[in-house]
Amino acid sequence: MQSANPPASPVLTRPGPGGLSDAAVAERVAAGLTNAVSDASSRSAWDIVRANVFTLFNGIVAGSFVLLLLLGQWRDALFGLAAVGNAVIGVVQEYRAKRSLDGLALMNSPSARVLRNGAEAEIAVAEVVLDDLLVLRAGDEVTADGVVLHEVGLEIDESLLTGEADPIAKDRGAGVLSGSSVLSGEGQIRVTRVGAESFASRLTSEAKRFSLVSSEIRNSLNRILRWITWALLPVMLIVVNGQMQVLGGWDVALRTGTWRTGAVGAVAAVIAMVPLGLVLLTSVAFAVGGVRLARKQVLVRELAAVEGLARVDMLCIDKTGTLTEGTIAYDDAHPVARTLPGAWRDVLGWFSSEPGANATARSLHSDYPVGVPLDPVGTVRFSSARKWSAAQFGGAPDAPTTWVLGAPELVLDHDASDALALAADLAEAGRRTLVLAATSAPLPQGSVDEVRLPPGLAPVVLLTFREEVRPDARRTLDYFREQGVQLRILSGDNPRTVAAVARQVGIEGVDGFDARTLPEDGGDLEDVLDRHTVFGRVTPVQKSRIVAALQARGHVVAMTGDGVNDVLALKGADMGIAMNSAAAATKAVSRLVLLDGRFDRLPSVVAEGRRVIANIERVSVLFLAKTAYSVLLSITFGALLWGFPFLPRQMSVTDGLTIGIPAFFLALMANSRRYRSGFLVRSLSFALPAGAIVAAAITAIHVAADLSGIHDLEQVRTAAFVTLGLAGLWILVAVARPST
């Protein structure tokens, strides 16, 4: 762990208890001590131009184009115009996608809460300056390195930086790192590092930068391009030698100048082998997919994530905020104590109004307003791992002094069987249930990691809460089941409550599995996940382990969530999907953000991913079939010392009519085909036989001409050109099925 920086330079105005003044902020901005870093959400314009223009294949095309111009064969250099057009289209499409995604990223960029001029203010992360006082609460993402000035139950998750999954308690004077997130409690830190000097600036900028994540399509295409690159030189030598031998040998060709004719044939062979538009159309398909999702209020942080959507076969769903509306409404109180302590309403008022209260506790505020002010002598803030919070107050020796609000089955022991039975019945009805319990024993002392429940807790009252199920949840889940996507519902609530909600959204015949009994062994955990669909009392670490176990079973896992307790699982999933209402830390690790929070966006999101991957597969077959017959023709005609059967202009025309123009339509048209693994095998299993058939047909034309005594090369090339055009149209019709 890196230690915090020493205090700021004494020449700067020091912050007071109320934070920096406007003058002190201006002083630091002028000195460049701001949190602004280069953190583009997509590639720069120059990166896009470089990726689409300065490639190996474009270099080969440019060299061939220049050679033909020098030879005076400008009519055979038409492919150069097509290559320029491809590059321009690729740059324009990606730049449009960049502008769209950058705009969404800017509108949904995180903010920081600071104390300035004695008041809290929300500012952009880049506007944080050295010595600012950051105010942290549960769900916040730490935006700059700092030192804790004061805290109340502050627990920080640094797993994204250190890999340590357990929350870390931060006492006064402890260092806090940017890129971590607040799990519970609250605090105030003084910023000690900003901008590029902060611990996580490089990590976070790289994590949020545009990238084409590892994908089956990208990996397969890169493998094919490597094969073609290795084959280009030897095949080109075979073709050039064959051309020269047809012209009477190297000596004759060089002496008479006929080598120029041979060079034209060699260029035609090389250009035919290069799948110029394949990488272009893949990038365009991803970019257009990202723009289409942006129009549906879906922010794609990484364009290749569009492909990942098509591959998902397991969807893990957090209940609150995903299946339900995410708003908690207080329902009723159910007394369970024979005699209710007089202060219980005031205690609930304190729990509902204290700054670190979660959404469930805050929903009590209207029914239990703050009455008698209570001053706790000790508190334990709520955390997703514990499922309870506690406070100790002063009072009469025989009166309850310590109160605990939390999940009944975690707070109460078996002696409170009546209260536990009532809580189970309420949960079975689909209502979230908490218990308020009391004891005269003090809170146990110790660090946050060692916090224990006080002894002698007795239930006072059960509290029930309602959550409204999203009206679109059932229809959305039905879609996924119809599409063969399996579902797992993971929640920190009572398993019976979760199961009741699951039944409301159409998942029948399920009983909630209590995650407290989940096995530690990976194999046993995978078996449990195979048998059960709904899980309750799931801790954040368990959600992450469940995602990893499903991946170990060969599933491609998408995880949806909106809470800090979902961060680890979202980060580990193949596709992390966050709601816009999610905490900043949750959205930071997600690859997709549903900006309008509509769960029913997911079917169209998955459909877009399937459209992209299915269309790229169809397009790749067109280009790979062309490469296959080009290589076979080059080797065959070169080895048999025959002149290459096409001029570059003929290849340009057939490519444009049977591959180039149709490929753009195929790459962008509607396609609802389900994803199936094996992209490369399927593509080659069609492209190689198709290429062999075309090569055999062209070879047969040449053989027939020889047998018929036709030695006019122009006639042979014309026949080959017509044959290639018809064969290309046959491949196009086969690839474009089903016809629309």
From TrEMBL:
Subcellular location: Cell membrane
Membrane topology category: Multi-pass membrane protein
Protein keywords: Membrane, Translocase, Transmembrane, Transmembrane helix
Keyword Transmembrane helix: yes
Principal location listed in the UniProt entry: membrane
Gene3D superfamilies, A to Z: Calcium-transporting ATPase, cytoplasmic domain N, Calcium-transporting ATPase, cytoplasmic transduction domain A, Calcium-transporting ATPase, transmembrane domain, HAD superfamily/HAD-like
PROSITE patterns: ATPASE_E1_E2
A Pfam family per the record: Hydrolase
Transmembrane segments: 51-71, 224-244, 264-291, 619-644, 656-672, 684-704, 716-736
Cited InterPro entries: ATPase_P-typ_cyto_dom_N, ATPase_P-typ_P_site, ATPase_P-typ_TM_dom_sf, ATPase_P-typ_transduc_dom_A_sf, ATPase_P-type_domA, HAD-like_sf, HAD_sf, P_typ_ATPase
Domain P-type ATPase A residues, every copy: 107-206
Name recorded for this polypeptide: Magnesium-transporting ATPase
Taxonomic lineage of the native organism: Bacteria, Bacillati, Actinomycetota, Actinomycetes, Micrococcales
